[in-house]
Known about the structure:
heterodimer; A: alpha/beta; ten-stranded mixed sheet; two-stranded antiparallel sheet; 11 helices; 12 strands; globular; B: mainly alpha; 10 helices; 0% strand
Amino acid sequence: xxxxxxxxxxALASLPALGLRLATTTSVYDSGLLDRLLPAFEGAxxxxxxxxxxxxxxALRLAERKDVDAVLVHAPDLEGExxxxxxxxxxxxxxxxxxxxxxxxxxxxxVREAGDVREALRxxxxxxxxxxxxxxxxxxxxxxxxxxxxxxxxPQGGFYLESGAGMGxxxxxxxxxxxxxxxxxxxxxxxxxxxGLEALYRREDPLLLNQYTYYLVPRGxxxxxxxxxxxxxxxxxAARLVEGLRVEGIPLFMPLRGRCIIPRxxxx
Amino acid sequence: xxxxxxVEISLRSLWVAGFxxxxxxxxxxxxxxxxxxxxxxxxxxxxxxxxxxxxxSVVVGLFFYLLLSRSGPLGSLGLLYTPYAMVLAEAVLxxxxxxxxxxxxxxxxxxxxxxxxxxxxxxxxxVLPTLFWESRRxxxxxxAAGFGGAISxxxxxxxxxxxxxxxxxxxxxxxxxxxRKGELESALALGxxxxxxxxxxxxxxxxxxxx
Lengths: 268, 211
């Protein structure tokens, strides 16, 4: 009994020290971006940040229920809708990189030869080569669905696998199955490449742009702290931290310094 | 993962599971003994209890999520995504385990204990305390089962804890994160620690029971 008392008291003592809650996507978290940004912010402002790594869809649901104070997400269409409904506010464009199609080295659908990303998807569907979808309403999943739509296809059947998991796990699954998948650059470099997947379609293409935006949740419990984090992320120091994150010399994100196209329904 | 963080995560796992076991045991042990003492009259209670063993942890997690969410009925307590929410969910899951263990252990001894109490001139009210004392060995197994269920819990722990680093990350949720990141070696190492912790606590309980 006495043994249990110590940790118990310790736990009770830590109750009021709740920090700012930030819901974000697995890609931002797993790539280590927040591990660079947040300690600098916490050191400067003395505010603790608690990160929930979920998909964009879930992050916005958490914002709707007021269970988080801020979100960092990457699905412009969903964000625009949430902005219109007043679930999130004050967008700050933080960083961008691009999506890419990854797959097995032998490339059975010959995606490498595709002229654009829509054709690449058509080749995969035509070859009925296995393709792993996130299937979790994350930013990446929504982008993938948009790309299929633009390719004029509704993927279904045995070749189309839904993982229902985060990006890292989806890449591991794709590697195991010898399948293609759509990935963000950061998670591909940190996870996918190690598993032997190759970037098969990777070109400058506005369709593949992947933009991360920070929003406040209006009337959140820690509105002041969320605002402080917004100011910190808008600083040049934060932009440098974003720029400096590299894997084997390749930058994972490009800082946006607050400048980008705010999703429609937006405006300040 | 650094050693300091590993220690932190392991200690948090220990206290969340330990606290949950305690919270569950306080009502579960008397319930198990009582159900044992009323014999076949407690058939409904027994059915419910054994059904509780099949309680899916994600359903419990979802239930507590809705209850504790800021838009939920208990949202003002601010418990969601804290270790306390994990304690609550794990306690609910450990409760039927502990009660069922106590019940099945005590059932066989009820008549013997009742005779003993009567022959010593005691009242019916003294049956339960005596039964408790006579079943203390079973109690250890019950606590070990409850603790084992709590510390290996991942579904409910993720839903109500949120796997926040330095705050609600425990061994099981850390294993999920490392696996998601493809850091399979780290995940495996964490799994070994989890097994080690479970083994250690169970060994401690068994040693305590022996004397």
